[in-house]
């Protein structure tokens, strides 16, 4: 991590402060400013709009040590605020803070995410979900880093990087944060449980996807679901892996509509999507994992396939077929005859889902059968 170069900005002392005079100043190609700080008197400044705007557009001035040349006198400073025109987006005013080169200062430094090519999770289609793009640090002015690098090497789908994982250059330390070891970035994946919304469909064969997702949500203490237009969504951590849980609320036959929205919004690859659904071709309680393939007549899968293709992961939960003359359509919409027999399997899936998310499907199946 290289240290920041000092940015030089020329300024002149300004004795005018009235609003009308400030408008005139701007029309002449200048920007009013001020510099202040503990132990210093406030000093009004005039800056060249052309010169300052060039510096402003070249990078984040708020993360640079500034050498202000004020009518021939040099002062070190930080940019603390830049006011922009609400329509034209031009700089209207600049607020500087005096800096003593021998003191410790607090400054926000941008984060740079490196080694994406060495992150298996991204190679497999994971989505880099950046939660923090800069971080406040303390250091002496001559130790200000240009960026703070966040190394993505070795990170898998669902894994996160926290602030304590980041290495700082010598002489730089983090400013205390209310959340001691907060998350900076995750590589996200999504589990989608299929079902039908409404109390009349609870505990039905067709809603086993919802049932499993709800159990994962409870077992791993996910945050509350958020209601969107046609789906419920939440996110949480499973063994240090960031996972989204989703329940389409568009009814089974239209599941593809919200799934496509979610995929497009979060830029998820199909490798990163697991759909949990009922399967009448498997005897009740039997579990299989499959990637791609046909929908086998399942209307929810048909809908998803039509919107995003079929090359996603499926967790197939066997619900069997009716033993009487009941039609298959009526059967899958009927409740389990003895849900207590299904509950232990659902709990095992929730408890061990991290194995499947890590790609260890064999270990996952062995633990739940």
The coarse overall form would be: elongated
Give the strand content: 25-35%
Q: What is the CATH level 1 assignment of the largest domain?
A: Alpha Beta
| SS element count, helices | 9
Rg of Cα set: 29 Å
Report the CATH architecture of the largest domain: 3-Layer(aba) Sandwich
Give the helix/strand class. alpha/beta
Going by CATH, what is the homologous superfamily of the largest domain?
Answer: Peptidyl-tRNA hydrolase
Order of helices and strands: EHEEHEEEEHEEEEEEHEEEHEEHEHHH
Low-confidence stretches: none
CATH topology-level fold name of the largest domain: Rossmann fold
What's the multimeric state? Answer: single chain
How many distinct domains? Answer: 3
Please report the total strand number as a whole number. Answer: 19
Distance between the termini: 50 Å
Average pLDDT score: 88
Helix content: 10-25%
Main attributes of the structure:
Rossmann fold, 369 residues, RNA Polymerase Alpha Subunit, Chain A, domain 2, Pept_tRNA_hydro_sf, ribosomal protein, elongated, 34% strand, nine-stranded mixed beta sheet, Ribosomal Protein L25, Chain P, alpha/beta
Can you give me a brief rundown of this structure?
The protein has 369 residues and is an alpha/beta fold. It has nine helices and 19 strands.
Helices and strands, with pairings:
Layout: E1 7-13, H1 19-27, E2 30-37, E3 40-48, H2 49-58, E4 66-70, E5 73-84, E6 91-98, E7 105-114, H3 120-123, E8 127-130, E9 134-139, E10 148-151, E11 160-162, E12 173-174, E13 183-193, H4 208-219, E14 226-227, E15 231-238, E16 241-248, H5 256-266, E17 273-279, E18 287-291, H6 299-308, E19 313-318, H7 328-332, H8 343-357, H9 361-368
Parallel strand pairs: 1-4, 2-6, 7-10, 13-16, 13-17, 17-19
Antiparallel strand pairs: 1-3, 2-3, 4-5, 5-6, 7-9, 8-13, 9-12, 11-13, 14-15, 15-16, 18-19
Helix pairs in contact: 4-8, 5-6, 8-9
């Amino acid at each position: 991590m290289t240290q920041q170069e000092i940015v030089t900005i020329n300024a002149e002392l300004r004795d005018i402060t009235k609003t009308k005079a400030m408008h005139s100043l701007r029309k002449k190609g200048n920007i009013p400013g001020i510099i202040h700080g503990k132990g210093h008197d406030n000093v009004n400044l005039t800056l060249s709009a052309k010169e300052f705007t060039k510096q402003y557009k070249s990078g984040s001035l708020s993360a640079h040590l500034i050498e202000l040349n004020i009518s021939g006198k040099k002062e070190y400073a930080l940019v603390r605020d830049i006011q922009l025109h609400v329509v034209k987006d031009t700089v209207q005013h600049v607020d500087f803070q005096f800096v003593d080169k021998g003191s410790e200062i607090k400054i926000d430094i941008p984060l740079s995410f490196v080694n994406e090519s060495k992150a298996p999770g991204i190679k497999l289609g994971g989505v880099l979900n950046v939660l923090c793009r800069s971080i406040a640090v303390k250091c002496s002015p001559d130790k200000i880093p240009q960026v703070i690098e966040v190394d993505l090497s070795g990170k898998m789908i669902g894994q996160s990087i926290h602030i304590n994982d980041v290495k700082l250059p010598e002489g730089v330390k983090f400013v205390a944060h209310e959340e001691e070891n907060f998350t900076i970035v995750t590589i996200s994946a999504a589990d989608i449980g299929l079902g039908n919304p409404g109390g009349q469909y609870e505990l039905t064969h067709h809603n086993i996807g919802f049932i499993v997702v709800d159990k994962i949500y409870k077992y791993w203490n996910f945050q509350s679901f958020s209601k969107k237009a046609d789906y419920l969504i939440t996110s949480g951590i499973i063994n240090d892996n960031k996972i989204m849980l989703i329940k389409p609320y568009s009814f089974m036959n239209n599941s593809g509509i919200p799934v496509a929205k979610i995929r497009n919004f979060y830029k998820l690859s199909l490798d990163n999507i697991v759909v949990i659904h009922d399967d009448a071709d498997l005897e009740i309680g039997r579990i299989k994992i499959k990637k791609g393939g046909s929908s086998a007549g399942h209307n929810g899968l048909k809908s998803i396939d039509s919107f995003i293709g079929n090359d996603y992961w499926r967790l197939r939960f066997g619900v069997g077929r009716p033993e009487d003359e009941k039609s298959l359509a009526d059967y899958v919409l009927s409740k389990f005859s003895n849900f207590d027999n299904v509950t232990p399997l659902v709990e095992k899936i929730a408890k061990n889902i991290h194995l499947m998310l890590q790609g260890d499907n064999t270990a996952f199946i062995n633990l739940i059968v």
